[in-house]
Specification:
The protein is an alpha+beta fold. It has helices at residues 2-8, 23-45, 50-63, 89-95, 101-104, 114-142, 178-192, 216-234, 260-263, 277-280, 283-290, and strands spanning 150-154, 157-162, 198-202, 242-246, 267-272. The longest helix is centred in the middle third of the chain and has 29 residues, at 114-142. The radius of gyration is 43 Å and the shape is rod-shaped.
């Protein structure tokens, strides 16, 4: 009985598993799919709107004060020889490019400091005022009056000092001498061509006055007024650009070897600088350096 069952039992056969030699193809296909996707992404993000990029290029060129450099159509290589500049996020977004963190990190400290810019502006202003002084001096020399005025560049501007002993005003008087009128008539045409404000400033010495003037304040103010009237009424200087002020004896001029009583019977014609105070304050420093 048991033998019969033994003969009828199927013999169990174990088959050897075959090795799959094509598994690499699956990995290769996956890798190629990833590479294709990567190239598609790289290609898509490399596309820049040409029209907007041209607008960006023109804007940057205009900001640097020169025409934009030529570019070969179809070039996709990296631009070289271009200095790093700050691009606003709005401009970068319109051009379809991403802002570079290195570029965004640039600050104004990479350029000239405020002090350096102020010094440059003051130097240019000094040279301009010196040029006005040279024009006035040339005009005076042409009339044989080259030694009748003195020039100074201060924090206020160019001061043309009508200082020449008794040539312009006698003691306790605001009447213009013939030499004074010649000097005024010679310098006024030069000042008419200038856009700056003109301040005519009268002075007096410390001697007390008598008669017509109660104090040196009135005397100095009248001296300034007489010069102003001559410049406006005869020389044609616009009245809107000129003013007169009297300082009495409060601002004496101390010159080595000069008589303080004579040297302070004077009028200063000031070409007022229109620059900010922080720049004008550098003018005396430049004047001292120039000697």
């Amino acid at each position: 009985m048991s033998g019969h069952r033994g003969r009828g039992r199927k013999k169990h056969e174990e088959h050897e598993e075959h090795e799959n030699h094509e598994r690499w193809a699956v990995s290769y296909a996956d890798m190629m799919t990833v590479l294709v996707g990567l190239f598609i992404v790289l290609y898509s993000i490399s596309q820049v709107d040409q029209a907007k990029f041209e607008q960006l290029r023109e804007s940057l060129a205009a900001g640097f004060g020169h025409r934009a450099p030529s570019m070969l159509d179809g070039s996709t290589g990296a631009l070289t020889g271009i200095e790093a500049i700050e691009i606003s996020p709005e401009l970068a977004e319109e051009a379809g490019i991403e802002a570079d963190p290195v570029v965004e990190g640039l600050t104004e400290s990479d350029g000239p400091t405020e002090e350096e810019l102020n010094l440059q502006a003051a130097t240019a202003e000094y040279d301009r005022l010196q040029g006005i002084a040279e024009q006035v001096q040339q005009a005076l020399v042409g009339q044989g009056l080259g030694d009748r005025v003195k020039f100074r560049i201060t924090e206020r501007g160019l001061m043309i000092g009508m200082v020449a002993d008794d040539v312009f005003f006698t003691a306790a008087s605001a009447e213009l001498s013939p030499t004074a009128t010649r000097v005024i008539d010679t310098i006024t045409p030069v000042l008419v061509r200038m856009p700056e404000e003109i301040s005519v400033e009268g002075h007096a010495n410390i001697l007390p006055v008598s008669g017509r003037y109660a104090t040196n304040w009135e005397l100095s103010a009248d001296r300034a007024t007489q010069v102003l009237r001559r410049m406006v009424e005869v020389g044609g200087l616009p009245a809107t650009r000129v003013s007169a002020v009297g300082f009495g004896d409060a601002r004496p001029l101390n010159e080595p070897g000069a008589d303080p009583l004579e040297v302070n019977r004077r009028v200063d014609v000031v070409v007022v600088s229109g620059l900010p105070e922080e720049i004008r304050m550098l003018l005396p420093l430049i004047a001292a350096q120039r000697g």
